[in-house]
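Good morning,

Attaching, inline, the C-alpha cells for the sequence recovery test we're adding to the shared suite. The designed sequence is right after.
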C-alpha cells in the first residue's frame, strides 16, 4: 500500500477552495495530530491523489500537460 508523504516546504500560488465541513474537520484533525499546517496536509493529500490516478486519467493529464508545454 502507498504511504502518505508530508512535504517539508514549498513555494506556490494561492487558490480558494470550497470544501465540505466534514472534510475540513478531518484534515484539521490530521494536521493537529501531525503538528503540521492544514495547508501541508492538503498538499500531501492532493499529491497522493494525483500520483494514484487511474491510468486513463494519468494519460489524459500528461497529454494536456504536453500540449500546454508545446504552446510555450
Amino acid at each position: 500500500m502507498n504511504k502518505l508523504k508530508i512535504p517539508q516546504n514549498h513555494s506556490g500560488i494561492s487558490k480558494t477552495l470550497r470544501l465540505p465541513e466534514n472534510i475540513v474537520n478531518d484534515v484539521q484533525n490530521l494536521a493537529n495530530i501531525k503538528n503540521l499546517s492544514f495547508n501541508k496536509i492538503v498538499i500531501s493529500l492532493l499529491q497522493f491523489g494525483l500520483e494514484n490516478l487511474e491510468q486513463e486519467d494519468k494519460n489524459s493529464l500528461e497529454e494536456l500537460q504536453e500540449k500546454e508545454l508545446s504552446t510555450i
